Amino acid sequence: MGTPVQTVTPPKVHPRLDEFLFTARRFIKNPLSVIGLSLILVFGVIALLAPVLEPPKYPDSFKMPHSGWKIEPSPPSAEHPLGTTQQQYDMLYGMIWGTRSAFKIGVLVVAANLLIGILLGAVAGYFGGAIDEIIMRVTDVFYAIPFLVMAMALVVAIGRGLKAVIIVLIILEWPSYTRVLRSDILVTRNKDFILASRASGASHLRVILTHILPNAMYSVLILASLNIGATILTAAALSFLGLGSDTGVADWGQIVSMGRNWIVGAPGNRFAYWYTVFVPGFVISLFVLGWNLLGDAVRDVFDPKVRRR
Amino acid sequence: MPQDTLATTQDLFTNFYTFEGVVRALNGVNIVVRHGETYGLVGESGCGKSVTVRSMMRIVQAPGKIDSGSIFVFLNPEDRLKAIEIVHRSEAYMESIRGCDISMIFQEPAAALNPVLSIGEQVAESYRFHLNDRMLEETLKALEGKRGHGLQRALFRRELAAIHRRDARLQRIDNELYPLDGRDDPEARSRKAQLSRMRDRTGGTDALVQVARRFPFLRLYRRRLERTVHGHVVELLRSLGIPNPENVAERYPHELSGGMQQRIVIAIALACHPTLLIADEPTSNLDVTIQAQIVDLIKQLKKTAISSVLFITHDLGLVAETCDRVTVMYAGDVCETAAVKELFKRPLHPYTKGLLNSVPKVEQAEELAMIPGAVPNLIAPPTGCRFHPRCPSRMPICVTEKPAVVEHTADHWVACHLYPKAAGSERSDPERSGPHD
Amino acid sequence: MSLLSYIIRRLFLMIFVLFGVSLLVFTVMMLMPPGMRVAAYVTSDRVTPEMMDAMIAKYGLNDPAPVQYIRWIGNLLHGQFGYSITASAPVLTGFMQFFPTTLELVLYAAPLIILVGIFLGTIGAVHKDEPLDHGTRIFAIIGYSLPTFWLGLLLMMILYGFAGLFPPGSLSNSAHEVVNAPGYHQYTHLLTIDAILNWRWDIFWDAFYRLILPTVNLVIINSALIMRLMRSSMLESLGQDYVMTARAKGADSRTLYLKHARRNAMLPVITVSGLTFAGLMSGAVITETIFDRKGIGWWTARAALQLDVAAIMFNVLFLGVIYVVINLIVDLIYAYVDPRVRLS
Questions:
Q1: What are the residues of chain B with a beta carbon less than 8 Å away from any beta carbon of chain C?
Q2: Mutate which of C127, C235, C242 to test chain B, going by most B C-beta atoms within 10 A?
Q3: Measured between alpha carbons, how far is C199 from B146 in angstroms, rounded to an integer?
Q4: Digit-coded pLDDT (tens) for B97-156
Q5: Å from C86 to nearest chain A CA?
Q6: Is C264 within 8 Å of B255 when comparing Cβ atoms?
Q7: Strand-strand pairing, B325-330 and B64-73
Q8: Across the interface, which of A259, A270, A285 has its CB nearest the CB of C145?
Q9: C286-331 pLDDT, tens per residue?
């Protein structure tokens, strides 16, 4: 005879830390997420080191330097490693400082959207009733609005420039965050532990902050990480159409638009100016790809349905 | 092997390769189901009952894999001793067995039915997959003597002929395959693999029929066939006690009650008169009154339509009511197998004893006994006998060595070191005698 | 709830949303100075600065906002959409001129996008974790990351610039003359359809040829979303109990995947397909600009640059209406296709 033995070993590590390590390990195992993360880190480093890599020539560091006034773009050379655009703006400078604009746009827009979305979504989802109806109808209206066209209209109304683009994107993108968070909250708030928490006297705010949000956050975080890429693409599109920064400012979309007239070279040398179109677009694609891979990896790791197999 | 074995597993090891590690779900499972009996498989949640039967039908979901062991079925009505090993059989062969010789019904009837297909459509599939030749023959007979319909007749005849050709081909392959089953030498193995592949590739269709089936207006020719099948469907539903079967066949799953849905699931499983019906906790999600109805239905069907039932449940009371023999499982191990009355009267394995003690009895006045501890994590299962951490009769050998299955008394098998090999019996595992007998 | 009451409820919602959209558009308009806004009220073809000042005073563009709003809505409901500088014509006329071009492109691109997305998504799910799955996912994620304008420029650069194929524009000059000649009947104003109806296959080929590149551009970028949705929807469907039941019935792989799993997986795709269709109409801006197709997207882009208020506002409203209508249609289709909704 013997007494039964406990086969359940207590965890050696705090559950939150354990969870985090598990998540990090899953993350690293996926080659695509590693690629995405590396891409973003590389771009991040470039953005940080911009003043070192390419010292600004004007007080406004975002204005690209140009040597000469020739309309035709110049091919890559020692002086201009990536060549120049039309009117001789240095492409390397544009790429490097454009990183800063891109990060600014992506991070600011998504952060603001997260804030607004979480606020409104939590209020709508938790309190329900009339407030919920109102907020949902407002998001319905925003959903109906054609994105790019309305962005163009807003830029017309409030003027162009980087700040305008950021404001416009914030105004137009918050509804999806609100909806996602709200639906998650609707699911979570019916769960029993919320009822238990309220029964033991927790205030609404406390319940929202400590119980509901940590459980409902995942979908909206996934949305945010997947959206950064799309936001940057839209901003680039606006710049491409000429509604973004002023001429000569380091902005990837704009640099692509400058190459638009040069996609066909002289009959003898068709691809003469390929770099002026290829390079800025390629850089945009890499940047967005990095964020998309990262977003995918975040979703794979956080998605409750895929999480534990 | 007992003379009337229907299906048996031998030393079955099934593992799940998940992100968190390898879940060793089945730890050498041995069960024997005989013709004409109701066989119960009991155990707590997660002990491997479902994994066992799914392995038997080879529908274990990824990331699960049958890693070793054998599964034998004896489906030949003429030659009851003709064993077919199915772990290495081709997928095509399994598809022909599933739903036809061995059928399964599941725990949640609502989830088991496809929400976007009508009831009639889902039941009809059973006929179409396995009894297509009979349906074609009946349709052709119905067309006899009627003028016209030349195209229909021609196409149906071609389809039927294609099926007959395939059956002949399969018969030839199988005639070579059966004798090879017992052999495990490299030459036999490669020939078996080759024959399996040939089997997979043997189609039962005619090219012209295939085209006609997909052609937008031409495909309407099949309406007569569908009507034949529909007739069978309605009859089947009626025989299962479903009121107004024509109406029900048009409906969709969500429109029916839980009990009705489970009857439909049973109908689907029975359409082809399977030899073995596996019921994976069919009543756990229904209320008690419906539960009684379904159990009665299964009992009735066993008398008329099927040979054996493999009943999985965690409810010992149900086992006592319905089963002839029962196996108790724990954490992927088989603990004890016996006739129901014998098991309840003289339980041998400590786990069985613990289970029986924890069920409230009418005359009991004291507290309910509990089995202390918890079900182990199957990624890092206990060594030796998997029950040893919770066993009140634990001995040192239990930690190191897994007990073998022993026939302690007549037809009462137990895997526990308390009951070592019966003297004189060389083979501790009588199920292990293969077709050589 | 019966189908009729459902439709009525949705119609009410539609009206409310359109009202909200008009409010929003109006707010944006009010951010602009009166000189820019007056164009929305112009009804005649020829305008001079004095007339503008007079109109500013007459229409009270300095009046309180609610009054202006009511006036503006009134105008809209009477079909007075103002005058477009970029079109040199009343807005409605300009719209009728440009819309068919966009519609034609969307009619070719949208079904292709949906079909390609569904096809690739199904393949990815069926061959999960095999090379085929990885290949389609990589294709999807790259397509999703490329800027539309860049891909278009690259395609033009390589195929048109280098190989001389697929020139931009909607029609060649010679074809253009034929189309506008008296004998040619423009039934639908859709170039390819009209060409067939007039039995001019040379014109058909001319227009079709020029549609290929912009369509490919749109397909590569937009099918990624549907492909990913289809794949995850299929995977979820494949994990359901009813698929296991079908397997236990003895279903073969083809029936399992295509009949049981895919029919359920398609349901979410329906909604997204509708949204894609609506989004294409508004998102064609870039593609039309690059490929020099004079559709409403191209028009809006020019209007934005030239501050043509009337045109932009009209396009926003129009696209809002399209979105709401398509949403309703999609919901009805969904309600019909999913028996759980249809019969509840």
A1: 57, 59, 61, 91-92, 94-100, 103-104, 106, 108, 111-118, 125-126, 129-130, 252, 254-255, 265, 268-269
A2: C242
A3: 48
A4: 888 889 998 888 888 999 888 999 999 998 888 888 888 888 888 878 777 777 778 888
A5: 15
A6: no
A7: unpaired
A8: A285
A9: 889 888 888 888 888 888 888 787 888 888 888 988 888 898 888 8
